[in-house]
């Protein structure tokens, strides 16, 4: 660790009565990072964020902000600001009053000139100069979103917390805002913690992705790490599209295992956790790691059932006898006419290290390890 | 920032899911007439009710008010403003009422606000309905009965008797201005609590968190957000209670011993005792006008407080 | 009045509920009080199953099955109406009122629905003048015997030789004093008003009723109880305004306050005085030696009575001495009918509250019709109350 983490969770558990929303999380978020908290609905993302903001107190463990234990510190004394899911803008105040709300709370008091200047800067930062006197209900959803952003950032927080800030926007606006948020984070250089259940958003925007499931952190890493080296079956399945194929461990050699599939084919896969001979496993095959060719050779043989042509790529559903349907994604090179038609038999191949073998899980892939300690360092 | 300026979002034109304040779009205009007609039809029974039970009596009273008292009492036709010219004869009653109404409403507000606040924002969910019911249920029994209960509580056999046990003798609580104020607060409390409760209940809790998040202490959050956003409810309750107090006569009579004379008492006496209908009508008309002025002022304040949105008072 | 008032302090829950139920039935002390319940009229339906049970087959051919009467609170034996219903099949709805003015207001407005009502002496001429009461058809009232009535009490029911109303009870208006609190003996209105401003400061009640409150203030100066003279009324007003800040209440519902000890002295009608004294012996009933009011309540039938046959039938029933004596015992006011008095126990006839000595009765005046409609007295009362 080279710097004091902006946010640190130490063995944090949060219970609501009988419900354990967050259990035993250890987490350190270094300064100036864009971190995404990613996970399915109900996995405890919002709860984590609210514990940072001070709206909830951990049942066990500690939350530290820039090295200071926050136990007993109310929200209004914490150096973080939050962009709420539905923005939570004050309906009785205009845009400028909303933005300067935090500045007016500052003690010692700021001069009204300073408040006006900073609010003006914040407004132009989110490209809303000239909208200061508008009422909140006179703004579009996207504009409201920017006001919420400006209202939080104008206070120069150590960390900006964003709880699904883009969820209410339509797709186009959401893509625009994703880019704006990334740029903004780079410009001001403070830590952003973004909660999302949209894996594409998490991968595309953040420096680090923290994948959560069932109240725990399952994996923490850079987006490419998360995608290429998922810690477990859940991450492999949740992040990006993948094919899961069942099999049994037929042989072990270092990092690699031989997996016998249901139709008897034995493929070579990488393992992420220790496996033993004969153990039931699930093999993850990313669609883009499969390459198709005319019948003859290849690891697996199948028949094209379906084809979705997407321009630069084409997706195929391929039926393999005894295994089931696999999704394959092939680049399309203009002029080569290399598209397979439904009904056509194909051969499938993939690089030796591409498949990943995980212990077969009958639940939805919850990580079994108890003492997950995730830490990222740049 | 990658984008320069905001591009209007085409989806927004449907006025749908995104923001409450999106501009009404062209396709909606066509249906406005049909919508108004529909509204008118739906409101027809209510309108009829208003005409029969509000407008007609009002017209009758207006006609009475320019008439004369018959020698044996009642009304005889005339066209004179003598009744209005005689209004100063009830100046004390008007004055007492003009003091009672706002002071009573204010006292009511001071008690009601914390109760409504507790109910809406602090009470445990499973208790909320029960507590609300406890506040509303007494309202279903007659005010006369409930006020009589206070006569016994404040009367010689009630609190003063208990105080006599601890040596405080001959204390008189009943028939004092304090007793009247107490009765008013008690009698009108639900009318004040409910609208405030509703406005607080509707309050988006995340606004309170947002305020705290932005560094506001609980006190400034209360003043800057909670209180501010509940003001329409406060205005509704305040004007409702105040208007009802303008016509109040029962509580001052029973708990004030009939020594304090309000305009409501003047009206009752004029109609039921001296049977001076024209003068009573002139006072009633004046009272209605005062009430309307109060409502207009309250509505203005409310509208201003809650931004551009209109607030219906009753 | 329930005797429970006498029991210890403070009031117990069931007594309190008793009181509430009593209020709900409308049986509160006489006059003026029910005006409080609003422009509408408090109505107590004593006859149960009103209109639900069909009239018995033996009911008189054209009496119908219901009628309504307007009267004073606590003024009848409820059993009377039950018995009447059992005999005739006519259910009686009882409307109780607070003041003569209020009854008049309701009749003047029309559509009262009453087939019988109980006006006080001085109002009858006005009713007649306004043409809203019926000359009584004495043939339908065989139980009434003019000869057994004291003419002093029947006089105002007869106008120009025609009988418009027949008497029910008579009484006086004096004042009640709690002698434990005010031991100095009192015998005049002058003492009443002077004590109200001194020893009984904050403990005195006067009626919310122009006739008696103004009338007894006039008595302070020895003027007529019914005076309409400007200068005399001005003097009375001066007195009333001077006394006002010292009063406990301006209200005709004085029994509860006298019983609870909140009030020590009050203007008082005979029957209330008798009830108070019976339950709380230290409360004395005093007639001012300068005079004051003597009154008679009558029965009369409105011209627009919806069920005149039943009205006559009930009136005739009430004129039966055996029925009337129960009424008298229930409300405590003296009766005008010698046949009834003959049936009364000796201790009732010897009660000086009900039957004061002749020299005390002599200066008393019946209320004058003019006071009922005089705007001057009404405005004086309004000025007094709003002062
Ligand atoms: N106030 C509360 N009382 C009881 N249970 C709660 C409360 N808040 C959250 N929970 C529970 O805690 C768990 C985690 O909730 P949380 O809101 O953190 O999920 P999330 O990851 O943000 O989900 P989503 O993506 O749907 O917003 C859920 O099972 C939820 O039902
Ligand atoms: Mg959430």
Any key phrases for this structure?
heterotrimer; A: 378 residues; alpha/beta; Rossmann fold; OB fold (Dihydrolipoamide Acetyltransferase, E2P); 6-stranded mixed beta sheet; 21 strands; 22% helix; C: 387 residues; D-Maltodextrin-Binding Protein, domain 2; 2 domains; 4-stranded mixed beta sheet; 17 helices; disordered N terminus; binds adenosine-5'-triphosphate; binds magnesium ion
Verbal overview:
The complex is a heterotrimer of chains A (378), B (314) and C (387). Chain A is an alpha/beta fold. Chain A contains eight helices and 21 strands. Chain A has helices at residues 45-53, 95-105, 112-125, 141-153, 171-188, 199-205, 223-228, 233-238; strands at 7-16, 19-29, 34-38, 60-65, 68-69, 80-83, 159-163, 191-196, 208-213, 216-221, 243-253, 256-261, 266-271, 280-285, 291-293, 300-309, 313-320, 324-331, 345-349, 356-359, 373-375. In chain A, the strands form four sheets. Chain A has a six-stranded mixed sheet with strand order 6-7-8-3-9-10, sandwiched between helices. Chain A has a five-stranded mixed sheet with strand order 5-4-1-2-21. In chain A, a hairpin with a 3-residue loop joins β17 and β18 (324-331). Chain B is an all-alpha fold. Chain B has two domains: 24-65; 90-306, MetI-like (MetI-like fold, Orthogonal Bundle), CATH 1.10.3720.10. Chain B contains twelve helices and no strands. In chain B, α11 (263-273) packs antiparallel against α12 (277-305). The two termini of chain B are 48 Å apart. With 387 residues, chain C is an alpha/beta fold. Chain C folds into two domains: 3-170 and 297-347, D-Maltodextrin-Binding Protein, domain 2 (3-Layer(aba) Sandwich); 171-294 and 355-386, D-Maltodextrin-Binding Protein, domain 2, CATH 3.40.190. In chain C, 37% of the residues lie in helices and 16% in strands. Chain C has 17 helices and 13 strands. Chain C has helices at residues 13-24, 78-88, 100-109, 124-129, 151-154, 189-197, 210-220, 230-243, 255-260, 270-279, 308-318, 321-331, 338-341, 346-349, 358-361, 369-373, 375-386, and strands at 43-44, 66-71, 91-96, 116-117, 158-159, 162-163, 166-178, 204-206, 247-250, 265-269, 283-286, 292-299, 364-366. At the B-C interface, α3, α5, α6, α10 and α11 of B face α1, α3, β9, α9 and α17 of C. Residues 45-46 of chain A line the site of magnesium ion. Magnesium ion is lined by residues 45-46 of chain A.
């Amino acid at each position: 660790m080279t710097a004091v983490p902006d946010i640190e969770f130490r063995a944090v558990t949060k219970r609501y009565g009988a419900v354990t929303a967050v259990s035993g999380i250890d987490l350190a978020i270094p300064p100036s990072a864009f971190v995404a908290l990613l996970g399915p609905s109900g996995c405890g993302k919002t709860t984590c964020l609210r514990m940072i903001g001070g709206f909830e107190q951990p049942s066990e463990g500690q939350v530290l902000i820039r090295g200071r234990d926050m136990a007993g510190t109310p929200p209004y004394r914490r150096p973080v600001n939050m962009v709420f899911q539905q923005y939570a803008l004050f309906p009785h105040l205009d845009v400028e009053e909303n933005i300067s709300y935090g500045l007016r709370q500052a003690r010692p008091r700021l001069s009204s000139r300073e408040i006006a200047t900073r609010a003006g800067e914040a407004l132009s930062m989110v490209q809303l100069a000239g909208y200061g006197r508008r009422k909140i209900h006179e703004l579009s959803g996207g504009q409201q979103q920017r006001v919420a952003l400006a209202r939080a950032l104008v206070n120069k927080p150590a960390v900006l917390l964003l709880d699904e800030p883009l969820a209410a926007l339509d797709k186009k606006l959401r893509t625009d805002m994703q880019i704006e948020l990334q740029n903004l984070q780079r410009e001001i250089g403070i830590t952003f913690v973004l909660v999302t259940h949209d894996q594409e958003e998490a991968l595309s925007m953040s420096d680090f992705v923290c994948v959560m499931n069932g109240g725990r952190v399952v994996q923490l890493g850079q987006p490419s790490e998360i995608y290429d080296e998922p810690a477990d079956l859940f991450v492999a399945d949740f992040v990006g599209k993948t094919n899961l194929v069942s099999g049994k461990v037929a042989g072990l050699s270092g990092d690699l295992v031989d997996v016998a599939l249901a139709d008897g084919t034995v493929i070579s896969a990488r393992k992420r956790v220790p496996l033993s001979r004969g153990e039931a496993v699930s093999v993850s095959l990313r669609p883009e790691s499969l390459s198709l060719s005319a019948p003859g050779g290849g690891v697996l043989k199948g028949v094209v059932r379906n084809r979705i042509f997407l321009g630069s790529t084409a997706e195929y559903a391929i039926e393999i006898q005894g295994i089931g349907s696999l999704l394959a994604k092939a680049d399309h090179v203009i002029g080569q006419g290399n598209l397979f038609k439904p009904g056509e038999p194909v051969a499938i191949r993939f690089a030796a290290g591409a498949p990943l073998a995980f212990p077969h899980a009958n639940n939805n892939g919850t990580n079994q390890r108890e003492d997950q300690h995730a830490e990222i360092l740049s | 920032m990658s984008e320069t300026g905001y591009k209007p979002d085409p989806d927004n034109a449907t006025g749908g899911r995104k923001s409450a304040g999106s501009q009404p779009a062209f396709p909606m205009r066509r249906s406005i007439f049909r919508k108004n007609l529909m509204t008118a039809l739906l409101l027809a029974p209510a309108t009829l009710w208003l005409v029969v039970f509000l407008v007609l009596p009002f017209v009758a009273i207006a006609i009475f008010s320019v008439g004369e008292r018959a020698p044996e009492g009642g009304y005889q036709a005339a066209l004179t403003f003598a009744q209005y010219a005689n209004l100063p004869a009830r100046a004390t009653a008007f004055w007492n009422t003009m003091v009672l109404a706002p002071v009573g409403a204010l006292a009511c507000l001071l008690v009601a606000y914390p109760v409504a606040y507790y109910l809406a924002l602090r009470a445990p969910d499973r208790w909320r309905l029960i507590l609300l019911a406890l506040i509303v249920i007494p309202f279903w029994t007659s005010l006369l009965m409930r006020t009589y209960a206070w006569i016994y509580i404040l009367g010689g056999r009630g609190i003063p008797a208990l105080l006599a046990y601890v040596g405080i003798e001959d204390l008189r609580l009943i028939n004092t201005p304090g007793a009247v104020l107490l009765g008013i607060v008690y009698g009108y409390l639900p009318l004040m609590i409910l609208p405030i409760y509703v406005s607080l209940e509707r309050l988006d809790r995340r606004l309170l968190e947002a305020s705290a998040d932005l560094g506001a202490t609980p006190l400034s959050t209360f003043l800057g957000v909670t209180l501010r956003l509940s003001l329409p409810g406060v205005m509704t309750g305040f004007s409702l209670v105040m208007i009802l107090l303008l016509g109040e006569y029962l509580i001052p009579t029973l708990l004030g011993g009939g020594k304090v004379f309000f305009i409501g008492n003047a009206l009752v006496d004029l109609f039921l005792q001296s049977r001076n209908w024209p003068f009573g009508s002139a006072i009633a008309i004046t009272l209605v006008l005062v009430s309307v002025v109060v409502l207009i002022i309250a509505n203005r304040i409310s509208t201003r407080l809650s931004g551009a949105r209109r607030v219906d008072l009753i | 009045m329930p005797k429970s008032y006498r029991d210890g302090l403070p009031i117990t829950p069931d007594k309190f509920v008793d009181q509430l139920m009593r209020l709900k039935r409308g049986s509160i002390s006489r006059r003026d009080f029910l005006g409080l319940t609003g422009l509408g009229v408090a109505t107590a339906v004593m006859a149960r199953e009103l209109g639900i049970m069909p009239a018995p087959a033996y009911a008189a051919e054209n009496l119908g099955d219901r009628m309504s009467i307007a009267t004073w609170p606590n003024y009848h034996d409820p059993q009377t109406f039950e018995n009447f219903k059992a005999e005739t099949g006519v259910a009686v709805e009882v409307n109780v009122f607070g003041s003569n003015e209020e009854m008049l207001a309701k009749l003047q407005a029309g559509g009262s629905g009453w087939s019988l009502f109980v006006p006080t002496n001085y109002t009858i001429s006005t009713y007649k003048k306004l043409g809203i009461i019926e000359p009584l058809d004495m043939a339908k009232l065989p139980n009434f015997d003019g000869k057994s009535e004291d003419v002093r009490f029947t006089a105002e029911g007869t106008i120009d030789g025609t009988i418009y109303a027949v008497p029910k009870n008579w009484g006086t208006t004096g004042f009640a004093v709690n002698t434990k609190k005010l031991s100095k003996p009192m015998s005049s209105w002058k003492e009443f008003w002077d004590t109200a401003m001194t020893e009984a400061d904050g403990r005195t009640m006067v009626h919310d009723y122009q006739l008696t409150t103004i009338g007894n203030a006039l008595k302070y100066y020895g003027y007529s109880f019914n005076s309409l003279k400007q200068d005399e009324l001005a003097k009375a007003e001066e007195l009333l305004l001077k006394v006002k800040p010292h009063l406990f209440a301006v209200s005709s519902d004085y029994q509860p306050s006298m019983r609870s000890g909140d009030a020590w002295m009050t203007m008082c009608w005979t029957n209330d005085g008798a009830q108070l004294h019976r339950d709380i012996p230290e409360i004395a009933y005093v007639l001012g030696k300068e005079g004051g009011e003597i009154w008679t309540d009558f029965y009369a039938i409105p011209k627009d009575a919806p069920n005149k046959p039943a009205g006559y039938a009930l009136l005739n029933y009430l004129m039966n001495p055996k029925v009337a004596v129960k009424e008298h015992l229930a409300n405590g006011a003296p009766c005008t009918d010698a046949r009834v008095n003959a049936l009364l126990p000796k201790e009732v006839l010897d009660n000086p509250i009900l039957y004061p000595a002749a020299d005390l009765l002599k200066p008393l005046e019946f209320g004058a019709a003019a006071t009922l409609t005089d705007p001057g007295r009404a405005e004086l009362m309004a000025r007094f109350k709003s002062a």
